[in-house]
Design goal:
The structure is a single chain. This protein has 474 residues and is α/β, with parallel strands linked by helices. It folds into 3 domains: 172 residues, Rossmann fold; 250 residues, N-(1-d-carboxylethyl)-l-norvaline Dehydrogenase, domain 2 (Orthogonal Bundle), CATH 1.10.1040; 32 residues, Single alpha-helices involved in coiled-coils or other helix-helix interfaces. Helices cover 54% and strands 9% of the residues. It has 19 helices and 10 strands. An 8-stranded mixed β-sheet has the order 3-2-1-4-5-6-7-10, sandwiched between helices. α1 links the parallel β1 and β2. α8 packs across α11. The longest helix is centred in the last third of the chain and has 33 residues. The radius of gyration is 25 Å and the shape is globular. The structure holds NADP nicotinamide-adenine-dinucleotide phosphate. NADP nicotinamide-adenine-dinucleotide phosphate binds next to α1, α4 and β6.
């Protein structure tokens, strides 16, 4: 009989097939299975030199039998009901001590429910976020693990072997019990939405405010990638903008319909932030912007009705403006990350996870879509002050905000003047302005609430009078 596999993987789509090759390459024998069975044989046939380390299975029974107990089994399929169906199909075939690892983009609430469902079965469950897309899965993703610490200890070695490395450290960590790993992955994606939207807004200023070509804008992003904005997303933005359409020879990006897709993780981030009462306005703005982008026909009709804004962009092109744009993007990025980390801090309290903030920033430094130089600074800031209320009040980040906020203000003002939409940049600016305002305007809201609903308020002088003399309308 052939040697048994050390690990199994179900789902040979984009992510699963690359993850399986990564595992085989790092020296673990792996069994694979796919809903459409022909894919397993096809996958092994395409695996080249790695084929001897892969056991392709046609049936789920053969798959389970090909793995040495206790079996670690990674499920990398479409998130949602399909995962429950897959777990149900596996359950009768598994034995005590086997570990099911859901590596898809699950909603962390589903992950918590799956833990509960598998609690008394003798099986172990791990909810694991994997970031880095196709390339990351193949050569080293960032891996965010949720489950018991003991179950993580059993798969730590193989996960560390396939994870991305940053200065020698694997970008993989146990982050907490239950849904912790999937929650952190969700917030990672929420931050990714904000990052991408802000880049797109700066692209909009350069394209529509300054009339620059895609190629010229690409070169600008290329320069920024060598500075403080150095990151994977800026790097690919440069490459995307420099790419020509093979059909027309025009910039590829100019031939793409301006309708952005979304699969749910950005929306979940915004929903969870709202549920917990933590402002994550840049993430919310980015999710809303994608929704608005998909309303193409309505936007076309509205432009026909209202016309395009005929306001000139008020800032002069040149080096000072380029510097302002770079700093504006940097300031807004700080706002988005500060919000994402604040959401995780609150979730950590609410779900009793003790999420390790410096570790999260550390495992995002390589392998994942939001990897950047900037995450080094975040790791340092949280290592120095793990319980800080907000990233922007740490010494390093408050200095960066002080330096870059005037640029964000100038760019947002100019974009607003010219009628260029900058919802994520402007929400980040308002977040800073509201966060550092010791006396805001909610006193009026409290008065209104008390007027129509007798909801009461606290007085500034501490007197125990909690309702206003609103008269007949109160
Ligand atoms: P994909 O290429 O579309 O592949 C989907 C896989 O799921 C296929 O193997 C498919 O099998 C299987 N599947 C679908 N419905 C199923 C069902 N009802 N029962 C059993 N298997 C089913 O998707 P992907 O991009 O690899 O994504 C897989 C997971 O990783 C998703 O949760 C996704 O959100 C997550 N993820 C994706 C990325 C990314 O960049 N793509 C990054 C991180 C995480 P068939 O071949 O039979 O259709």
């Amino acid at each position: 009989m052939a040697e048994l596999a050390e690990i199994g993987l179900i789902g040979l789509g984009v992510m699963g097939s690359n993850l399986a090759l990564n595992i085989a390459e790092k020296g673990s024998r792996i069994a694979v299975f796919n809903r459409t069975p022909s894919r397993s044989a096809e996958f092994v046939a395409e695996a080249g030199a790695l084929a001897p380390a892969i056991i392709g299975c046609d049936t789920i029974e053969a798959f389970v039998a090909a793995i040495r107990p206790p079996r670690p089994i990674i499920i990398m399929i479409k998130a949602g009901e399909a995962v429950d169906q897959q777990i149900d199909a596996l359950k009768p075939l598994l034995s005590g001590g086997d570990i099911i690892i859901d590596a898809g983009n699950a909603n962390f609430r589903d992950t918590i429910a799956r833990f509960d469902r598998l609690k008394d079965t003798g099986l172990t469950f791990i909810g694991m976020g994997v970031s880095g897309g196709e390339e990351g899965a193949r050569h080293g993703p960032s891996i965010m693990v949720g489950g018991t610490q003991q179950s993580y200890a059993r798969v730590e070695k193989v996960l560390n072997s396939i994870a991305a490395r940053y200065e020698g450290d694997p970008c993989c960590a146990w982050l907490g019990e239950g849904g912790a790993g999937h929650f952190v992955k969700t917030i990672h994606n929420g931050i990714e939405y904000a990052d991408m939207q802000m880049i797109a807004e700066i692209y909009g200023v350069l394209r529509d405010g300054l009339g620059k070509s895609s190629r010229d804008i690409g070169a600008i992003f290329g320069r920024w990638n060598r500075g403080r904005l150095n990151s994977y997303l800026i790097e690919i933005t440069e490459k995307v903008l420099a790419t020509a359409d093979p059909e027309t020879g025009k910039p590829m990006v100019d031939m793409i319909v301006d309708r952005a897709g979304q699969k749910g993780t950005g929306k979940w981030s915004a929903i969870e932030a709202q549920q917990m009462g933590v402002p994550a306005t840049a993430i919310e703005a980015a999710v809303a912007a994608r929704s608005l982008s998909s309303m193409k026909a309505e936007r076309e009709a509205a432009e026909a009705l209202f016309g395009t804004p005929a306001y000139a962009f008020p800032l002069k092109d040149g080096a000072p403006l380029m510097n302002d744009l770079e700093l504006a993007l940097f300031a807004a990025k700080i706002g988005a990350y500060a919000q994402g980390f604040a959401v995780m801090a609150e979730a950590s309290r609410e779900f009793g996870w003790s999420l390790p903030m410096p570790t999260i920033a550390r495992i995002w430094r390589a392998g994942c879509i939001i990897r950047s130089q900037f995450l080094d600074e975040i790791t340092k800031a949280f290592t120095d002050k793990p319980d800080v209320a907000n990233l922007i009040v740490t010494p390093a980040f408050s200095a960066m905000v002080a330096e870059s906020l005037p640029s964000l203000r100038r760019i947002v003002s100019a974009a607003v003047t010219a009628g260029i939409p900058v919802p994520a940049l402007s929400s980040a600016l308002s977040y800073f302005d509201a966060y550092r305002q010791a006396r805001g305007t909610a006193n009026l809201i409290q008065a209104q609430r008390d007027f129509f609903g007798a909801h009461g308020f606290d007085r500034t002088d501490g007197l125990p009078l909690h309702h206003g003399p609103w008269g007949a309308g109160g």
